[in-house]
Amino acid sequence: MRISELLKTDEVTISCELFPPKQGAQLDNYKKIVGDMAALKPAYMSVTYGATGGTSDYTVELANEVRNVNHIPALAHLTCASSTKEKVASVIQELKEKQIENVLALRGDIPQNADFPLPNQYKHASELIYDIKSQGDFCIGGACYPEGHPEAETIFEDLDHLKEKVEAGCEFLTTQMFFDNNILYNFMYKALKRGIDVPVVAGIMPVTNASQIKRIVSLSGNMVPPRFLAIVDRFKDDPKAMRQAGIAYATEQIIDLIANGVNHVHIYTMNKPDIAAAIFENLSDIYVRE
Ligand code: FAD
Q1: What region, left, alpha or beta, does residue 83 occupy, with left being phi > 0 and alpha being psi -120 to 50 degrees?
Q2: Most exposed residue of 21, 88, 151, 232, measured as fewest CB within 10 angstroms of its CB?
Q3: Cα separation of 43 and 265, whole Å?
Q4: Mean pLDDT for the chain?
Q5: What values do phi and psi take at 106, rounded to 5?
Q6: Ligand 1 centroid vs 125 CA: distance in angstroms?
């Protein structure tokens, strides 16, 4: 199923994210995680590409497991900064063969100490989106940054480039994580004023251990509200309490989003079905699954 169809309705959707293994020997374990996550009946499941400790080698295979084994719509991420156009084309071909129709098209982080872009590389996600569109009937999503992408001088410059992605054929956007919903509401207002009117899926990261937060802030430059920092300060040395507080915080963020009309939420579940299950349970009368 095309994700753009799911996002057209006012029904609440909650989706989950997985990352693929580094080595093929781990595939069976990861497939079990897919099955456990699928049992929660998320609206769709995304599989990252070369991010958060995984590689790109098994993204399509795991997306195949989501779509064709567990029968949940799959969203395969695809980045281009570390690949040639030929490599990207071969992944697109694989996606077609597996009938995976949804792609989150990303530039990816620019590899350090590399000449970028080489002549046979895409420079921006918008170029990749345009090319994927020309290579098949895909439903394409893109990334957006409520606090601005770290490389952009201003949020307005970033929004101009975001508009280029939508004009290139991006049918929905998934946000970078944020910990204060007002940041998202401000962003959505600014985006709409610039004519960016595709559905925006709010990305929520349940922070369930204290080390995560340092990494998140250093990688993405996220603003962390004092209310959230107080939780980390209070519970960081008590893993069970930190887990519970992180799940409660993410749940509260999601409820506030839905109450304010943001009906589509993507949880950065980081291959942790137990955390996803706890949040789904907290939302069992809000996100009702058959
Ligand atoms: P772009 O849209 O190309 O933007 C990158 C920067 O370039 C921005 O500052 C933008 O304003 C600027 N820009 C864009 N177009 C132009 C232009 N024409 N001229 C000048 N400047 C321009 N990374 C992974 O490696 N694997 C993943 O699976 C992955 N999944 C992600 C999922 C989500 C929801 C998000 C939010 C991020 C994800 N990332 C992933 C991280 C992402 O790859 C990085 O944030 C990367 O630095 C930017 O990718 P992008 O697609 O947003 O790039």
Answers
A1: beta
A2: 151
A3: 10
A4: 95
A5: -130, 155
A6: 6
